[in-house]
Amino acid sequence: MSISAVAVDPRVSNVEVTEQTLVVTLRDGRQISAPLSWFPRLAQADAKAKSRWELAAAGHGIHWPLIDEDLSVDGLLQGSAAPRLRP
Fold first, then answer.
1. How sure is the predictor about 37, in pLDDT bands with cuts at 50, 70 and 90?
2. Is residue 6 part of a domain?
3. How confident is residue 33, by pLDDT bands cut at 50, 70 and 90?
4. Looking at the domain assignment, is residue 21 inside a domain?
């Protein structure tokens, strides 16, 4: 019996922000999904700001320039919510 190694590539390939969920697809095919409420700045942004994201940290992070929000793949994989905004 042979065992084949799975190629792990935890860099971002796509990001989708729905009304209630952040879904990040990694290059190796995994998807990370988290409630949008975990990311208050992103949750409060308008549709244009949510849809305009770019890769950060060589693909190991995501940056939303219109709202100055940054998330890391490591944090998402650990299930870490963003800190709450202060009033």
1. very high
2. no
3. very high
4. yes
